[in-house]
C-alpha cells in the first residue's frame, strides 16, 4: 500500500510554468456605415439618387485617369475629344465620356415577380448566374442626361457590373451604338499611411513639439510588435449537437488550451477575433399564413415557440462569452444573422446576447468595448492598418453578373471601382442614401477581407501610386474548418484547420 501511495501521492514539483499573456492590439473602428436612428431613418426616398451621388463623387476621379491616358490619343489625325454628357456624343466623332454602367440582363430579378409571387404554385429556384445563354445581355452607359449602348472588344476583356463608374473612348456608329476602343476605371483611391489616424489624433490632442512640426508619437514600446488577428466566417451555429465539437476545438485553440507549448504560445499572439458574418445558420422558413390560420399559436415567454427557435442564438452567446474574458471580438452580421437584410446591415442587437453584452461598450460611449458588434460592411484600424471587410454579399452578387469563378478578381475590381457594393441597389438590397453613397471607398484599405467564400484565397494588388492591398477570401468555417490568421506586423497570412476524424 505504501508503494501505491508513493506513486500516486507526490509533492508538487518545483518546476515553474510561465504564464501566457494575450498580445495587445490597438483597435479603432470607423463608423462609416452607421445609419441614422429613429425618425431620421426612413425608406421613402428614391433609389435613383444613389446613382447620381455615386457618379458625382467618382466622375472627377475617372475623368482624371482617362484624361492622363488619352490626352494625346488620335486616329488618322483626329484627336480624341472629351464630352460632358452621354447625349453629347455625336455619330462618327472620336470622343470619350464618363458615366455609370447599367447591365441590361433579362435573367436579373424583376420586382414585378416579387409582387406576383403570392400567386405562384411554387417559387422558381434562385439563379446562380444572370448571364443569358443566348447573348441577350447588353451593356449601357448612363448619366443624368440619358443612356448609351456600348459595344466593342474591351467589353469582353473587362469585368463590368451595374453601378460601377467608368470612362469609355470610341465613336458612335450608324446604329446608335458606341463602339469603344478603350475604357478606364477610377482605380485605387488614396491609401492612408500606417498609424496615420492615430498620429493625427495625437497631434490634435497634444499639439506638436515646439516649432519642429513633429507629432508627439506614443512610446515606442507600445508599437513595438503587433499580434495576429483571427478572421472566421460562416460558423453556421444551428443549436444542434453536430455544431459543438468543431466549435469546441476552435474555442480551446483560441484560449490556448489545445496543443503543446508552441501552439499555446502562438494562440497567445492572437490579439483579436473577427467573425465575418453568418455566425448563425439559415433559419427554418416560417409557416405561411394559410398554414397557421386554423391553428392557435402557442406562446411561451413572449414568443411563438412554433415559429422561433432560440437555441442557435443561445449557443452563439455561450461561444462568445467563453472567449470574451480572454479575447476581444468584432462581430459582423451576415445574410443569415438576425439583422436587417438590406446593406449596410446594422449591428446585431445586444439583446440577442444576454451574457456577452456585458463586455460591450455602453450606449453613447466613444471607446469600443471588448465585444464590438459592428455593421456589415465594416472598416477600422487595427494596429495602425486600415482594414475593411464584409460578410460576402457584395462579392456573391457580383459573381452572378460575370463569367468565371475568380473571387479575388472580383474583389480587386471592387477596389479599383472604388465602390464596396456596386450592384446595390439594382440586385442587392440597400438603404436609399440621399446625401452620400456610403459604399464609395474614399480611402483604400491595407487589408480587404470577404467572408463566406467557397475557399481560402489571397493576393496583394498594387495601385498606380504605390498602394498595396492584401485581399483575403475567408472560407466558411462550418464547411472547411479553416481560420485565417493575419500577422499585423507583416500582413502575411496563415491557415489553421480544424477537422474531425470520421472512424466509420
Summarize it.
This protein is of the alpha/beta class. About 20% of the residues lie in helices and about 20% in strands. It is built from 12 helices and 22 strands.
Global shape: globular
β content, as a range? Answer: 15-25%
Low-confidence spans: 208-221, 285-290
The major sheet is characterized as: 6 strands, mixed
Percentage of residues assigned to helices: 10-25%
Distance between the termini: 43 Å
Structural class: alpha/beta
Order of strands across the biggest sheet?
1-16-17-18-20-19
Number of strands: 22
Mean pLDDT: 86
Give Rg in angstroms: 27 Å
Query: Number of helical runs?
Result: 12
Oligomer: single chain
Textual characterization of the structure:
The protein has 504 residues and is an alpha/beta fold. 21% of the residues lie in helices and 22% in strands. It has twelve helices and 22 strands. The chain has helices at 2-8, 48-70, 111-115, 154-157, 196-206, 244-254, 261-268, 289-292, 311-323, 393-399, 407-417, 477-480, and strands at 27-29, 74-75, 78-79, 81-82, 95-104, 138-142, 147-151, 165-172, 178-184, 228-232, 270-276, 299-300, 303-304, 329-332, 371-373, 378-382, 385-390, 447-453, 457-462, 468-475, 482-487, 493-497. A six-stranded mixed β-sheet has the order 1-16-17-18-20-19. Strands 15-14-11-10-21-22 form a six-stranded mixed β-sheet. The chain has a five-stranded mixed β-barrel with strand order 5-6-7-9-8. The chain is globular.
Amino acid at each position: 500500500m505504501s508503494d501505491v501511495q508513493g506513486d500516486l501521492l507526490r509533492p508538487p514539483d518545483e518546476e515553474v510554468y510561465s504564464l501566457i499573456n494575450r498580445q495587445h492590439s490597438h483597435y479603432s473602428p470607423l463608423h462609416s456605415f452607421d445609419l441614422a436612428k429613429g425618425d431620421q431613418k426612413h425608406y421613402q426616398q428614391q433609389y435613383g439618387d444613389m446613382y447620381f451621388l455615386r457618379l458625382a463623387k467618382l466622375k472627377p476621379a475617372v475623368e482624371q485617369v482617362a484624361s492622363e491616358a488619352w490626352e494625346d490619343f488620335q486616329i488618322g489625325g483626329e484627336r480624341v475629344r472629351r464630352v460632358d454628357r452621354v447625349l453629347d456624343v455625336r455619330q462618327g466623332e472620336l470622343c470619350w465620356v464618363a458615366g455609370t454602367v447599367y447591365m441590361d440582363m433579362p435573367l436579373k430579378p424583376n420586382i414585378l415577380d416579387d409582387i406576383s409571387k403570392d400567386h405562384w404554385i411554387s417559387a422558381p429556384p434562385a439563379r446562380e448566374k444572370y448571364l443569358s445563354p443566348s447573348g441577350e445581355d447588353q451593356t449601357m452607359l448612363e448619366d443624368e442626361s440619358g443612356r448609351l449602348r456600348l459595344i466593342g472588344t474591351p467589353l469582353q476583356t473587362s469585368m463590368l457590373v451595374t453601378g460601377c463608374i467608368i470612362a469609355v473612348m470610341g465613336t458612335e456608329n450608324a446604329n446608335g451604338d458606341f463602339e469603344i476602343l478603350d475604357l478606364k476605371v477610377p482605380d485605387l483611391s488614396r491609401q492612408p499611411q500606417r498609424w496615420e489616424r492615430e498620429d493625427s489624433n495625437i497631434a490634435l490632442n497634444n499639439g506638436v513639439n515646439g516649432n519642429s512640426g513633429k507629432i508627439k508619437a506614443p512610446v515606442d514600446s507600445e508599437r513595438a510588435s503587433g499580434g495576429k488577428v483571427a478572421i472566421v466566417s460562416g460558423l453556421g451555429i444551428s443549436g444542434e449537437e453536430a455544431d459543438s465539437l468543431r466549435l469546441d476545438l476552435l474555442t480551446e485553440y483560441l484560449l490556448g488550451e489545445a496543443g503543446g507549448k508552441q501552439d499555446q504560445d502562438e494562440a497567445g499572439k492572437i490579439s483579436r477575433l473577427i467573425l465575418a458574418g453568418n455566425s448563425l445558420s439559415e433559419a427554418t422558413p416560417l409557416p405561411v399564413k394559410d398554414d397557421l390560420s386554423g391553428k392557435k399559436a402557442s406562446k411561451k415567454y413572449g414568443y411563438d415557440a412554433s415559429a422561433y427557435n432560440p437555441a442557435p442564438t443561445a449557443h452563439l452567446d455561450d461561444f462568445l462569452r467563453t472567449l470574451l474574458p480572454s479575447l476581444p471580438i468584432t462581430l459582423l452580421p451576415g445574410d443569415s444573422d438576425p439583422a436587417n437584410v438590406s446593406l449596410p446591415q446594422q449591428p446585431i442587437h445586444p439583446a440577442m446576447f444576454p451574457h456577452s453584452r456585458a463586455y460591450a461598450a455602453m450606449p453613447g460611449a466613444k471607446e469600443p468595448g471588448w465585444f464590438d458588434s459592428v455593421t456589415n460592411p465594416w472598416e477600422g484600424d487595427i494596429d495602425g492598418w486600415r482594414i475593411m471587410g464584409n460578410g460576402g454579399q457584395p462579392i456573391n452578387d457580383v459573381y452572378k453578373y460575370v463569367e468565371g469563378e475568380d473571387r479575388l478578381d472580383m474583389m480587386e475590381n471592387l477596389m479599383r471601382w472604388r465602390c464596396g457594393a456596386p450592384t446595390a441597389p439594382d440586385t442587392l438590397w440597400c438603404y436609399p442614401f440621399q446625401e452620400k453613397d456610403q459604399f464609395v471607398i474614399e480611402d483604400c484599405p491595407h487589408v480587404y477581407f470577404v467572408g463566406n467564400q467557397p475557399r481560402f484565397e489571397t493576393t496583394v494588388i498594387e495601385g498606380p501610386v504605390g498602394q498595396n492591398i492584401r485581399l483575403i477570401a475567408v472560407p466558411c468555417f462550418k464547411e472547411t474548418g479553416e481560420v485565417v490568421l493575419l500577422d499585423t506586423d507583416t500582413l502575411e497570412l496563415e491557415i489553421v484547420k480544424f477537422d474531425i476524424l470520421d472512424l466509420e
